[in-house]
């Protein structure tokens, strides 16, 4: 008997959700998608809280397994569906390096991005100390620039879950703070945008841009080119 189809609870305005959507597209995984509108408070509805008391997305339900963190979801899906075994390497040191970069994404890059975007939502853009957040987020840019000194990808010489995890958050930060002073990071981002699966990031990124602008009563800088949304 085949495994039941995974169910992903999602709002594609969320960068961690978009990382899962990229991997699902990259590996052509058959997943049932269930939308949870974060900006309308759907994550606090009783039915969803029974699935995830943390009231956050993404959530993956796969048979009896319920995962409520995007990084755990990425690892689970790669272990189940990445036949080549390159996105989540089998060799210990390579795998731990990928994990290290994923933890950088969640504890450093995403945390700072979330602080910035959440403050815009709570206070309105006019009341946000943009220079403070720029210093915090461009510090993360400098760290990633160093990660890319010796390798083409965030955790080595091939695409891994580290890149998939980081690119969706980076694309969100890039709505405000451009990458022109970090040439290696800019090249990496351009290469990631050329992946067919990157299209899974574009719709949600644009929806987030419009939502944050509307709530924060401001305009992000003129948009840069993206892979075509489909």
UniProtKB/TrEMBL annotation:
Residues of the GST C-terminal domain: 93-218
Q: Which residues cross the membrane?
A: none
Q: Where is the signal peptide?
A: none
CDD domains attached to this UniProt entry: GST_C_Delta_Epsilon
InterPro entries noted in UniProt? Glutathione-S-Trfase_C-like, Glutathione-S-Trfase_C_sf, Glutathione_S-Trfase, Glutathione_S-Trfase_N, GST_C, Thioredoxin-like_sf
Gene3D superfamilies hit by this protein: 1.20.1050.10, Glutaredoxin (3.40.30.10)
Q: What is this protein called?
A: GL11001
Organism classification = Eukaryota, Metazoa, Ecdysozoa, Arthropoda, Hexapoda
């Amino acid at each position: 008997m085949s495994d039941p189809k995974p169910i992903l609870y999602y709002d594609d305005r969320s960068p961690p959700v978009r990382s899962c959507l990229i991997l699902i597209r990259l590996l052509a995984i058959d997943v049932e998608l269930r939308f949870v509108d974060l900006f309308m408070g759907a994550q606090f509805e009783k039915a969803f809280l029974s699935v995830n008391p943390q009231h956050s997305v993404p959530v993956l339900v796969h048979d009896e397994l319920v995962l409520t963190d995007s990084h755990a979801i990425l690892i689970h899906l790669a272990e189940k569906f990445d036949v080549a075994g390159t996105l989540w390497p089998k060799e210990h040191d390579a795998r731990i390096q990928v994990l290290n970069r994923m933890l950088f994404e969640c504890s450093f890059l995403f945390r700072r991005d979330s602080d910035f975007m959440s403050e815009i939502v709570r206070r309105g853009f006019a009341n946000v100390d943009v220079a403070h957040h720029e210093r915090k987020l461009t510090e993360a840019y400098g760290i990633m620039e160093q990660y890319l000194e010796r390798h083409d990808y965030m955790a080595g010489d091939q695409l891994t879950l580290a890149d998939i995890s980081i690119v969706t958050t980076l694309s969100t930060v890039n709505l405000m703070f451009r990458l022109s002073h970090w040439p290696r990071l800019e090249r990496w981002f351009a290469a990631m945008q050329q992946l067919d699966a990157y299209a899974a990031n574009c719709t949600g990124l644009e929806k987030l841009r419009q939502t944050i602008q509307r709530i924060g009563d401001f305009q992000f800088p003129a948009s840069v080119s993206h892979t075509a949304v489909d």
